[in-house]
Amino acid sequence: MNDVSVQFTLNGAPKQALVPPNLLLVDFLRDREQLKGAKIGCSRGVCGACTVLIDGVPVAACSAFTFQVDGRSVLTVEGLAQGAEATAATGWSQRY
Ligand code: FES
Fold first, then answer.
1. Which residues line the pocket of ligand 1, CB cutoff 6 A?
2. Cα of 49 to ligand 1 centre, how many Å?
3. Structural domain that includes position 85
């Protein structure tokens, strides 16, 4: 199978990659992007350990292929943490 090109937003940054069509999103995130926040638990879309937000909707990354996020926005727990830190820092600086 030929690799497919995907372009999407990952934690607020543009991302482009060539991926095998059968590459699971959780494997792309963990193995290629070193984003280990999405864990592999049941690998069946049941436990929620691999949950990411795709266009704001929770999705089991173990049940989605990477090519399916083409043109979409993916937010991992690492991206959520960055946003929380920025919010906390802004709130802190505004208050003090
Ligand atoms: S690993 Fe359990 S839902 Fe994905």
1. 40-43, 45-50, 60, 62
2. 5
3. 4-95
Which alpha helices (DSSP H) does the chain contain, by range?
25-27, 77-95
* pTM of the shown model: 0.88
CA distance readout (Å), 73 to 8, 9, 38, 60:
6, 5, 16, 14
pLDDT one digit per residue (tens) for the chain, 96 residues: 799 999 999 999 999 999 999 999 999 999 999 999 999 999 999 999 999 999 999 999 999 999 999 999 999 999 998 877 766 666 656 656
| CATH code, 74 | 3.10.20.30
Count of domains forming the chain:
1
